[in-house]
Amino acid sequence: MLKVGIVGGTGYTGVELLRLLSTHAEAEVVMITSRAEEGVSVDELFPSLRGAMDLRFSTPDVKLLATCDVVFFATPHNVAMNMVPELLAAGTRVIDLSADFRITDADLWSKWYHETHVCPDVLATAVYGLPERNAEKIRSAKLIACPGCYPTAVQLGLIPLLEEKLVDPSRLIVSAASGVSGAGRQAKIDNLFTELSESFKAYGVGGHRHLPEIEQELALAAKGPVGLTFTPHLLPQVRGIHATMYAEMIDPAVPLDEIQFLFEKRYADAPFVDVMHLGSTPQTRTVRGSNMCRIALYRPQNRDTLVVLSAIDNLVKGASGQAIQNMNLMFGLPETMGLQGLALMP
């Protein structure tokens, strides 16, 4: 049984980790930290976990965390980087759900997060935790940088096209929308129900922090530079990400059914990617609460632009579920363990 520690367990990704790990057959959460909630029982803060988690929040202590087999960081950026080097030195494996280790260039990270990276030497040791691309590296990794929610939905939709050089990598456009839980569990006027209800808006149009992460990883798939225009939007709902991707075909003679076959073949062994039949439309409600990504392909008016639709739950496949998927791979467990739950309907 794996001994699991969670740093920063009071946010939405933290409680989602607890929900999913509570029924995991080979993992036990033995420690969960929060400075603000020290001494408070987990089920007092999250009554949904009554009877499932008999733990109290404690102050983060690296020496105690180092007794765990694996530690998850469900924290804002600039927290994990201050503790990870010591945990790695103690032989504890780390899965970071924040952005601290996703961008491999420390200067680029600092540009987007407006702080100095305190352990740039560790960046080179981190494995980017997208199982559908890096499963073998994840198996032997000591430190996993779990992908962001938007980057997960976008990469799964575009990687097959870039790997096979079917589209122009310099002319990629993504319009994506997220439920408000993607903003975290915090008190902000913009996140109030009365501000969000019956409204829809773009944000981060001039530049979103997920952009350099997405471009970095898509460039690896394309084996060359990519040009991406990325516009995120806020949905008046709790969970879900829907990404619509536009890519210009290099060879318009390639039929859509051949590209469909390519996607089906690419993800044939990926248990959490569902390539839907042609003409399908993925919806956020069909992935809510699950670790599944559903993808559909279109070629409007049979012209030269491919449209890829991708839907995930931002808290599961976009965060905590994918983190557990990485843990399973790291420790030689079945990839799907603890993640077999189906989407919630209605």
TrEMBL record:
Alphabetized Gene3D superfamilies for the sequence: Dihydrodipicolinate Reductase, domain 2, NAD(P)-binding Rossmann-like Domain
Molecular function via GO: N-acetyl-gamma-glutamyl-phosphate reductase activity; NAD binding; NADP+ binding
Pfam families given in the database record: Semialdhyde_dh (PF01118), Semialdhyde_dhC_1 (PF22698)
Residues of the Semialdehyde dehydrogenase NAD-binding domain: 3-141
Key words, A-Z: Amino-acid biosynthesis, Arginine biosynthesis, Cytoplasm, NADP, Oxidoreductase
Subcellular localization(s) per the UniProt record: Cytoplasm
Catalytic activity: N-acetyl-L-glutamate 5-semialdehyde + phosphate + NADP(+) = N-acetyl-L-glutamyl 5-phosphate + NADPH + H(+)
EC class name: oxidoreductase
Superkingdom of the source species: Bacteria
GO CC annotation, single: cytoplasm
Pathway recorded for this protein: Amino-acid biosynthesis; L-arginine biosynthesis; N(2)-acetyl-L-ornithine from L-glutamate: step 3/4
Recorded family membership: Belongs to the NAGSA dehydrogenase family. Type 1 subfamily.
PANTHER family with a match to the protein in the record: N-ACETYL-GAMMA-GLUTAMYL-PHOSPHATE REDUCTASE, CHLOROPLASTIC-RELATED, N-ACETYL-GAMMA-GLUTAMYL-PHOSPHATE REDUCTASE, CHLOROPLASTIC-RELATED-RELATED
Record-linked NCBIfam families: argC
Name listed for the protein in its UniProt record: N-acetyl-gamma-glutamyl-phosphate reductase
UniProt organism field: Zhongshania antarctica
Gene name per UniProt: argC
